[in-house]
Structure formats: C-alpha cells, structure tokens
Amino acid sequence: MASASPADAVRTIKTYTVTPRPNPQAPRQIHLSAWDVPLLSVHYNQKGLLFAYPPDISLEQIIQRLRSSLEEALFHFYPASGRLRVLTCEGGGVTCHVEVGIDGEGAEFVHAVADGIGIADVVAADGQDLPQFLKDFFPLDLAVNFDGCTNPLLAVQVTELIDGVFIGLTFNHVIIDGTSFWHFFNAWAEIARCQAAGKEVVLSQPPVHDRWFIEGYGEPPIRLPYSSPAQFVVRFSPPPLLSDRMFHFSRESLVNLKERANQECGKGTISTFQALSALMWRCITRARRLTFEQKTSWLMSIQNRTRLQPPLSPNYFGNSFSTVSTTTTAGELLDNNLGWAAWLVHQIISNHTDSAIRNIVHKYMENSYVVNIRTIDIIHSVMMGSSPRFDVYGCNFGWGKALAVRSGSSNKFDGKLMAFPGWNGDGSIDLEVCLLPEYMAVLEKDEEFLAVVSAPIEFGVLLGTSGKKV
Predict the structure, then answer these.
(1) Strand partners, 10
(2) Is residue 384 part of a domain?
(3) Cα separation, 431 vs 457, whole angstroms
(4) Domain finish residue from 198, 231, 264
(5) The organism sits in which domain of life (predicted)?
(6) Which residues share a beta bridge with 19?
C-alpha cells in the first residue's frame, strides 16, 4: 500500500488552459433553464476513471493526446468552455447565463502525479473506506465568487500513478447533470480514439444545446428574487468524519432481490433498481436506530428527457432532472417487508410523468429559488444519485477499458448513495455509500444487507481482463 500521506500524495506538475477553436454556430450567451438555475450553489459534479498504464505510449503522449482531444471536445460542447455570469438587474432581481466564446476562456487542464500511489491503493480493499487522497485527484479550486463568475466551468486533472492514470473531471452543475456528464466524457474519449487513428472526428452522438423552457412564461433569462449572488451562493461542508465505501451487487444477487420484492409486493412491476433502493433505505434506517415515530425519506434524482411529451433528445446537453421523494416512519418502513418499501419507491418513479414535470417547472417559475443543500431535509433520509444506466465504462481513450470509477469529495453527506454500472457489464451494480462511521459499522453487519451484497471483483481479474501489463 502507499506510504504517502493524503496531505503530500498529489503534486501538480503543470496547469494548462485548453481553448477550442472558434465555433461559428455557438451563441454568445446561453440562458439557463429552470433545471439549471436552482443548482447555482450546488457543488461541482466530480467523477473520474482509473486506467492501467498503457504500455505502448509515454505519459507525455497521453497528456498531449488528452489535451488535443479535449480541445476538439470543447468545440462541440462549447458551454463547457464558457463562463458563468450572474447579473444584478435594474429594478431588482438576479439573472444568470453562460457566456460563450470569450477571449482567453477555456477549460483548466492539470497534470499531476501521486507519489507512491498505485492502482491497488485507489481501488481500496473490501471493507475499507475509499482513500482520502482521492479528493486531490480532482481540481477543487473552482469556487463561485460573489462577483458572479466562475472561470472555467470545467476542469480536468490527469494524475500519474505508479502503474496507472486517473482522469478526473470537475464540472459546474449549472451546465450538466449526470446524463450530460457521461455524454461529454464518452464523446471526449471517442474524439481521442479518432485522432489517434488519424480519422476524421464525427461524433456518434453530437450534443443538443437548445435549452428547454416551458411555454407561457415569457423569454429567458429567469429572474431570481435576490439582490446579489451573496444571498444564494452557499458552500456546504460534509461531516469531517464520513465513511465512504463501495459495495458490489452481482447480477445474480440483484435478480434474486428483484424476485423477492415482487413476490412480497404482489404487483409484479418492481424493477431491479427499485428493489435495491428499497433494500438500502431499510438497511440504513435500521443502522441509524431511529425510533418508531421518526420520519425517514427516500430521495432520488430522476431524469426528465424521456418522460416529457414530446421527449427531449437523449443528447440534450444540460440539466434535465428532478429530485423526487417519498416519506414514511421508521417503524412502518421496518415493520413492513421489502416489497412494501419497493412499492413506495416505484410509485414516485411511475408518477413522474410529463404533467408532473411540467407542474414542477410551473411552480418553480412562479417562485424561483436556488437550492441550498444546508436546508434540504436530509436528516434521517437516504438520497440516491448517479445511475447504473450511465455509460461509464464506454469511455475508452484508446488504451483499454477503465478499471474503476471514483467520485470526488463534492455533494457528499450522511445518507448519500451513488449508483454505477458494474465493471463487468452484466447488469451488476456498484454502489458508493456515504454514512457516518457509526452507521456504516452497523450496516456492514446487517443481515438483510449481507444477504444481498456480493464480493467485489477480484483485483487480479480487473488487471487481467484489461489486457494491460502493469
């Protein structure tokens, strides 16, 4: 294992600014939608991929290829190379938009090295918290200033390991959700493969940049009821001692869990993801030892693209999701069975229809606001983010499949879960779980949880299947 401490493990070698060539189709301004504006004060979205070190190219070549392909990616995804502008309006209120094509703007690209750290250290052993140094694999100096600017909206860090490379992306949440995040990551990788092969870059899934605005509310921009950004730009700090672990659920285990949930529910419509959600809600609530009367909620991010009528393009680049929830008492949740809890989760998902989405947007337009995570009712609740449907392991830059996906330190709190597709692509799921240490200790001894969670994929299998020598 690595001997370097988190404080001195990662060193910056060089920082670049990657700017795309001018895009004549890019507007000078992109107004933020009712799905974007609420996220002005939410932490950046941080996800990254771990790769075995390619044997046939040097680190210098990797850096050059990634910079060149990022330049081309920014040409196509031009909002990512812009900057956020928050303006105080005459007569009161604040408006926001992304400025595109400003001279000198672009994306920050950091080349770093993690001294003494290898792939095995990043993956972490079963039953151990993810290493603290992971937070240093992402550029973290992108804070919203009270003058209303962020510069840039995207930052990339490529970190050298002893035997591998970690590529971390930090994206301002006002311009992307999880769907758009992995759309961009995959497009960047596709461009890198094309350039390495000497092929013309023609994206298989070009982004759609037209922002969706609900009819009947006039022209954008959306006006917020604040007199300055200082009134809504708030930074949330997670608990200093937060246990953060990855758990693997095999396809076979999930099939059995889904079957159990449907048998107990008697409805026959519970999905695998709904069954897993119900399981985690129950097990975490039990680990917290809540009293019978204490309320607990299940919250989850749910995308709107396919639920709108007519649907948005799957390549819609921006935010298009809502947070839905259901609440019960701890006693009801645990006295009833898994199928009962799964049906609660199923209902909030099935009820998220076109009319429900439009109603949410209507209400927002009538009373606009910026989300403050400090005021969200997350006490005694569990919140699921990310999705096992995201094409995480399709991000192939030309040197093979990633070994693991990892997140940064942003947007984490007690009860936050993030779901990712399993590495072997057979319908398995990897779940990142953030809990206070005392709750994590109880969860890992919970009989219902232990009956479903699976052993992680062996480290040797990851390296062997990647086809890379390390």
Answers:
(1) 114
(2) yes
(3) 13
(4) 231
(5) Eukaryota
(6) none
